[in-house]
Amino acid sequence: MKIDNNQLLRFTTAGSVDDGKSTLIGRLLYDSKSIFEDQIEAIANTSKKKGFDGIDLALFTDGLRDEREQGITIDVAYRYFTTPKRKFIIADTPGHIQYTRNMVTGASTANVAIILIDARHGVIEQTKRHAFIASLLHIPHVIVCINKMDLVGYKEENFNKITKEFEEFSSKMLTKDFRFIPISALHGDNVVNRSENMPWYLGAPLLHTLETLHISSDINKVDARFPVQTVLRPQREGFYDYRAYAGRLASGILRIGDKVTIMPSGFTSTIKGIEGPSGKLEEAIAPLSISIELTDDIDVSRGDMIVRSNNMPEAAQDIEVMLCWLGDADARPRAKYTIMHTSNEQKAMIKEVVYKIDINTLGRKSDEKELQMNDICKVKIRTTKPLMIDSYRENRNTGSIILIDDSTNETVAAGMIV
Amino acid sequence: MSQYFLNYLDELESEAIYVLREVQAQFQNPVILFSGGKDSIVVTHLAKKAFYPSQIPFAFMHVDTGHNFPETIKFRDDLIKSLEARLIVGSVQTAIDEGRVVEEKGKSATRNALQITTLLDAIADNKVDCAIGGGRRDEEKARAKERFFSHRDDFGQWDPKNQRPELWNLFNGKYFEGEHFRVFPISNWTEMDVWNYIKKEQIEVPSLYLAHDREVVWRNNSWIPNSEFLVLDAKEKVEIKKVRFRTLGDITITGGIESEADTLDKIVTEVSAMKMTERGNRSDDKRSETAMEDRKKQGYF
Q1: Which of A149, B145, B193, B289 is most buried, judging by how many CB atoms fall within 10 Å of its CB?
Q2: DSSP codes of every residue in A70-103
Q3: Which chain A residues contact residue B174 at CB under 8 A?
Q4: Which residue stretches belong to region Disordered (chain B) (predicted)?
Q5: What is the pLDDT of residue A174?
Q6: Residue A246 Cα, gap to closest chain B Cα (Å)
């Protein structure tokens, strides 16, 4: 298999409990021949025991013992498959309302969200919630799969009605790329192979869509942001004067000779050398892991950010964030948390809850101030030292934060800088 | 550079390097769990790149069951020597001798489960706060739910229902005294990715991965290598076959496959046409539907 130019596409799947999400993933893996014979054999045995006619594709994604016993998904599971065009990583997230935090987790790195709708039920509250989270996490592409078309006689009018409903409520969302595909995951219509039952659908099947979406612009290639992870100072022969700053380019492109500013100190310098994973480079592009040498000997350490002097992020201590609360315990008013932003770590306090979002109506509730698990709120945060921020809409890597509760060390919140 | 995106192997490589640098920055005393298998070899190769031209800032830890392929131990010692690294060996034999663990009895007895105690002892004795492993999410269904930064309580246990959410590339490596982390830099790699990478980078791997003539016994649908530890029953007979191994575990339980693939190119071709999962030849995973999950919860790799 030729791999030279194949890209990596990460997608997440969201659906309500019985929308057929596991069956769809099983179908994608099965029809793209990504499942091994011993796995098929094991699943076929279990399917027979359960009295299933043929192979229950949903069983491919069953993971932990509790999930197998209860027939539900508890935590995000990652699956992999490769076609001659791309490598895919699926973040398979549970759909129940109490698992909003898992969906946010799966969505945080996704290029694409697949939202499943049961063709018999149309757009329901959960659908809106899934679309909203996809929009909030700024997933660049959303594919709405209208599933179980076999149960509505593969009729075009059902598909059109649901598409229209979806278009109506989603026009306020930030997502710019919504696509709609009528499928039957159970029978394989329009998943990998084109459906013969729906000749009226002229678009591409799901897999072809995933293989051809334009994703190389999903990461910001304009604003060069280089958060320093660690400093390399090899104390050995040939390298006694060597000092380089190691990190992963969060966005943009850096070249030898670029005039750069080190934030927050404000010192300026010039890029002298770039070392990539396979040797010296003239230029580096996000998300490459590199190390950088500067022409000047200045103090740079973990948490600093190297940027082009003519394109700098904002250094801010007061930031507005869309916060998704993930912790079991409620947020404590005016309590201090550790905030992680790129490689920078500071203390932070939630100063104010501006409003809470009603996840079902998508309306704002400005009178509710407490933060509980799965709540999504706009908050004002004050940090002890400045963070070098961009808005999340412009830059997912420099616009995202997490909060850690020092008393438990748990990650209690995920935030997107407004 | 005329192409302004990374191909998937470059992206996986950069992701793993990023994770390894986070480990160095966030932990006091990390080690690489080194089994001599291809995954830990790839992690070691990535660690070399992550800190070049500095040396790898981690010690290496090997849990030695005493039931090794001799080739693995030689490979381990040569590599450690060339890296000028420190090697910590946790010995299952010592744990048995000291009465810390009791060896399984019977024909299919293995020392697999005994490794857990030895590993956790070695982690505690050496005050290790992060053990870097070559685990991949595609290997097994319980591993599909594993985080990059996986928290272990003060008993070394994994609680799959209470994992820290892991968002974007922000890894929370905070722990209390006595707890530790397992970190898996190549979580997102598949067996195919690992071989493609080994081929691309021309990484040296133990000769066991390449097809070779070996004395073997047919057991549990695979070719188990003959060794001093193997107890044969009346019907089993030793044969010579051309085999190679897809994974390397204890010599007593690691089944080989018949193969003609004696070069990296041929292995890549063979793996891409494989019809069985790589752990399909590992009898330790076959004991029950949730064998891996049960061992992981107790502190397995």
Answers
A1: A149
A2: HT---S-EEEEEE-SSEEEEEEE---SGGGHHHH
A3: 338, 404, 409
A4: 276-301
A5: 82
A6: 8
Identify the CA nearest to B283 among candidates B241, B260, B237, B252: B252
What DSSP string describes B51-107? HTTSPP-SEEEEEE-S---HHHHHHHHHHHHHHT--EEEEEHHHHHHTTSS----ST
Please tell me the predicted confidence (pLDDT) of residue B284. 60
In chain A the domains, ranked by start, together with CATH numbers, are 7-212 (3.40.50.300), 225-308 (2.40.30.10), 314-417 (2.40.30.10)
Q: What is the pLDDT of residues B92-143, one digit of tens each?
A: 888 888 888 888 777 667 777 788 888 999 999 999 999 999 999 988 777 8
- Hey, what domains does chain B have and what are their CATH numbers? 8-193+290-298 (3.40.50.620), 205-283 (no CATH)
Give the β-pairing of A411-417 and A400-404: antiparallel
Nearest to A252 by CA among A278, A279, A271: A271
Pairing of strands A230-232, B30-33: unpaired
Q: Is B43 a residue whose pLDDT tops 50?
A: yes
**Quick one: tokens of B26?**
């966030």
β-bridge partners, B200: none
> pLDDT for B189-208, tens place per residue?
998 899 999 999 999 999 99
Name the DSSP letter for residue A195.
Answer: P
Instruction: Flag whether pLDDT at A400 surpasses 90.
Output: yes
**Mean pLDDT across chain A, nearest whole number?**
89
What is the DSSP pairing of strand B59-64 with strand A112-118?
unpaired
pLDDT band at B68 (very low <50, low <70, confident <90, very high): confident
Q: Which residues pair with A212 in a beta bridge?
A: none
Cβ of B293 within 8 Å of Cβ of A65? The answer is: yes
Q: Does A280 touch chain B (CB under 8 A)?
A: no
Residue A86 has pLDDT above 90, yes or no: yes
Note whether A259 and A309 are within 8 A (CB).
Answer: yes
Query: Mean of the pLDDT values across residues B74-85?
Result: 94
Identify whether the C-beta of residue B27 lies closer than 8 Å to the C-beta of residue B56.
Answer: no
Paired with A291 in beta bridges are: A246, A275
Residues in B closer than 8 angstroms to A104, CB to CB, are 165, 167
Quick one: which of A120, A75, A104, A110 has its CA closest to A90? A110
CB-based contacts of B125: which residues, under 8 Å, 6+ apart?
Answer: none
- What does A323-383 look like in DSSP terms, one character per residue? EEE--SSPPPTT-EEEEEETTEEEEEEEEEEEEEE-TTT--EETT-----TT-EEEEEEEE
Question: CB distance from A4 to chain B under 8 Å?
Answer: yes
